[in-house]
Specification:
The structure is a single chain. The chain is mostly helical. The protein has one domain. Helices cover 82% and strands 0% of the residues. The chain is built from 15 helices and no strands. It has helices at residues 9-40, 45-69, 72-82, 85-110, 113-119, 127-137, 141-156, 161-183, 193-223, 233-265, 269-305, 309-343, 349-381, 386-410, 415-440.
């Protein structure tokens, strides 16, 4: 019978063991940007603004490409579940072709950064530095996307130790490189924010290099010799039909929060500072369900590859229990501890007061945020990406941002109105995606073949 059952200890342990290291990696990658902001902050306020602006522009462009490459999740994990070595080999080799393609596409999007930021009426003293930052980090696009491809592949193989080691080592090296290039040590010219860009570009090249140094022997046996049909357009276009919706899904999420940031910026400095504090906390807690989502994609994909429909449902249920359960704890923390959390970032009374309100609102959407991201991972493992993309579109573009703008400006709720709009958008997306999970996994397990 196609029924849902409460996950056993075995499934909960499976998800936790795979998700734990992935969460560590996600936080480690997030740290690269935080280190840049922290160290550039010792140089100038305009440097902080340039790094923040340039990094956000990078994220908007690069996250789409990252999503496209994450088509490897269902293809590799389902191939492994089915014991189909040929399918795994083809997916990995075609993944490298996608890396090249999205690198070129993302470079074209990033190249006019300075002109775009000027048109967006960003501060004139910040735009040239931010543009230079983007042009420099753009050189690391192939390395970043290669690392994503290697990461997704190793996660599917349930071998995450090389990724963890790479992230730890690169964070240590990144601090040293920032110290050299930002402040001008060891004979280097002090470059400020542009030094942070150089450090980030080098660090991103080191990530795949270290992964290949550790796991290259195992990976290369799947990457050579070239498999017949690895470059066939029909199959590559099939991968794109699954991968492009993942990319748009990621883009819509980033763009939704980016639009919220721009709207809050229209309200003044105190609302923007309060928004930034709240967003940093929400982004940190989001790393856990994001890791669970990645684990869910692998475990559900493997079960579907093995044509184990019941196993896929149990792994999905375990992922939802862990992801939503964790966010339930963070929701209580945000609701109860909001004043203390706000004061950990700033002592400015006005910012603390508004941030306390926003953090409590963020506490309301924690459960929905956890549910929607885990459900997305489950559906990605099943290679179900197009419908979830449109559900995300409804949550952010149709409901979240417009309702937030209405509550903030037309009804006079200010920054809290924008955050209540995000709550409505996330709740809508979570409900739609959860419904999709329950209906999709009731069907017999079917592999995606491209």
């Amino acid at each position: 019978m196609n029924v849902w059952r409460w996950p056993t200890r075995h499934e909960l342990r499976d998800v936790a063991r795979l998700a734990g290291p992935i969460v560590f990696v996600q936080v480690g990658l997030m740290m690269l940007g935080l280190i840049d902001v922290f160290m550039v902050g010792r140089v100038s306020p305009s440097g902080i603004a340039a790094v923040a602006l340039g990094n956000f522009y990078w994220i908007v462009a690069a996250f789409f490409g990252q999503g496209v490459i994450m088509v490897l999740d269902p293809l590799v994990s389902q191939g492994l579940g089915a014991g189909d070595e040929g399918a795994v080999r083809l997916a990995m080799q075609r993944g490298l072709v996608l890396v090249a393609g999205v690198s070129v596409f993302s470079a074209l999007v990033l190249w006019p950064a300075q002109a775009v930021l000027t048109l967006a009426r960003q501060p004139s003293e910040v735009v040239p530095i931010a543009g230079g930052y983007v042009r420099t980090v753009m050189l690391s696009l192939p390395a970043f996307f290669l690392f994503v491809a290697l990461r997704q592949t190793l996660q599917a193989f349930r071998r995450v130790a090389p990724i963890v080691v790479a992230v730890v080592v690169v964070n240590v090296i990144h601090v040293v490189l920032d110290w050299m290039f930002i402040f001008g040590h060891f004979g280097f010219e002090p470059l400020g924010a542009l030094g942070a860009a150089r450090s980030t570009a080098i660090s991103r090249w080191l990530l795949p290099a270290i992964v290949l140094a550790i796991a290259g022997k195992d990976l290369l046996k799947h990457l050579r010799p070239r498999a017949p049909g690895a470059l066939a357009w029909k199959e590559l276009s099939g991968m794109l039909r699954v991968g492009i919706p993942i990319g748009f899904h990621f883009f819509l999420e980033v763009a939704g929060f980016g639009a919220a940031m721009l709207l809050v910026g229209l309200l003044g400095t105190v609302p923007l500072a309060s928004h930034h504090v709240t967003l940093q906390l929400a982004a940190l807690t989001y790393m856990v369900p994001l890791g669970v989502s990645a684990a869910a994609a692998v475990l559900v994909g493997r079960a579907i590859g093995a044509r184990d429909s019941e196993g896929a449902r149990r792994e999905a249920a375990a992922s939802l229990v862990i992801g939503v359960g964790f966010m339930g704890l963070t929701a209580l923390t945000f609701l109860i501890g909001a004043p203390w959390l706000a004061r950990a970032f700033t002592s400015e009374p006005e910012v603390v007061a508004l941030a306390t309100t926003l953090i409590r609102i963020a506490g309301v959407f924690q459960l929905f945020d956890g549910a929607q991201v885990v459900a997305t991972g489950i559906l990605r493992g099943a290679a179900d990406t197009r419908v979830p993309m449109w559900m995300n579109f409804v949550g952010y573009v149709v409901l979240g941002v417009p309702i937030g703008a209405l509550l903030s400006f037309s009804l006079g709720l200010g920054a809290p109105g924008i955050w209540w709009g995000l709550v409505i958008g996330l709740a809508s997306a979570a409900i739609l995606l959860a419904y999709r999970v329950f209906t999709r996994l009731r069907r017999p397990a079917e592999r995606v073949l491209v």
